[in-house]
Design goal:
single chain; about 325 residues; mainly alpha; Ferritin; 2 domains; 11 helices; about 75% helix
Length: about 325
């Protein structure tokens, strides 16, 4: 890697051209990734892309005047001091908040480059162009805000909020709710079967913990392997799998923890109360996020949970 201070004016201009091309292509990827769900924000980034394209053209024109047609390949990774960028533009669907923060970081880094390069340049025209570009990058965030005020008006903001909510449901709520429901309901039978069969709190706790963790691992892998999210828009499979697995384990551990109490009757009473609270919470989440009618959600969850609970009690008492 080359040290920045060792770069010639020709190499500085060549690097600036490369940086502008990379930034322009990143913004173009943002536009394509946001167009379907966040069209107004896509328009904002498209305006920023056009600005970067204009910067690149001005740099190329000056380079040709000073150094000819051949532009040597020198990139940000060839020079010390640049921050490694995470290719979040390759992850679909795009996280709007993350790419807005990344765009801000891109602008700050590019502005600092132009300021340092202008201070180092000896040629008056090169220094003037670099100073101008530094000033434009300084106001780039203001341009984004102006574009945002222009584009994100009327129903656009409401539409983007609806799209954000839909993505949140697909990527977080849906796998989390599936895991919570599976963990809460599927572990009822083994926990209460062990409790009624042994009348021993510790035995019930051990069975419940094993069932909860096992179900969490199983559900996590099943969710992660179900699809990669590229076509369904459900997000990164590892995130979905983690959310689903953790919520599955939490769903089972909730009514397992009371059996840490030495008093079996007290532990049983608390565990039953926790089960009712879990079923109520699941029904409420289904109603709020999945649009299931309240009565229908309560009926489905409560009846299913009670049937599994009864199964465990009958087997354990046999």
């Amino acid at each position: 890697m080359k040290d920045f201070n060792s770069l010639s004016e020709m190499e500085i201009l060549a690097l600036a051209i490369s940086l502008e091309e990379e930034d322009e292509r990143i913004y173009a990827d943002y536009v394509e990734g946001l167009r379907a769900d966040f069209p107004a924000s896509a328009a904002v980034f498209d305006g920023m892309r056009v600005e970067e394209l204009g910067h690149r053209r001005r740099l190329i024109e000056l380079y040709r005047e000073k150094f000819g047609e051949h532009i040597p390949l020198i990139r940000r990774q060839d020079v010390k001091g640049f921050v490694t960028r995470q290719p979040m533009w390759l992850v679909q669907p795009l996280d709007l908040d993350k790419i807005r923060r990344e765009a801000s970081a891109i602008e700050i880094e590019t502005r600092r480059f132009y300021e340092r390069a202008a201070a180092k340049a000896g040629d008056a025209r090169i220094r003037q162009l670099l100073d101008d570009l530094a000033e434009e990058e300084r106001h780039h965030s203001e341009l984004a805000e102006e574009l945002g005020r222009e584009k994100l008006v009327g129903g656009a903001k409401e539409q983007e909020e609806q799209a954000r909510r839909r993505l949140f449901v697909l990527q977080i709520v849906q796998p989390g709710l599936a895991g919570l429901m599976d963990g809460s309901v599927s572990t009822l039978a083994p926990v209460f079967a062990a409790a009624f069969a042994t009348r021993n709190s510790w035995a019930a706790f051990a069975v419940g913990l094993a069932a909860s963790l096992g179900a969490g691992i199983s559900m996590g892998f099943a969710e992660a392997l179900s699809d990669d999210g590229s076509l369904t828009g459900r997000g990164h499979p590892l995130l979905r799998g983690l959310v689903c697995g953790v919520m599955t384990a939490i769903g089972g551990v909730g009514h397992t923890l009371p059996f840490l109490l030495g008093n079996f009757r007290l532990a049983m009473a608390i565990a039953v109360a926790v089960v009712l609270a879990e079923l109520f919470a699941i029904a409420s989440l289904r109603h709020r996020y999945m649009g299931t009618p309240a009565f229908s959600a309560a009926l489905q969850v409560v009846i299913g949970g009670l049937l599994v609970f009864a199964t465990g009690v009958l087997i354990g008492s046999a």
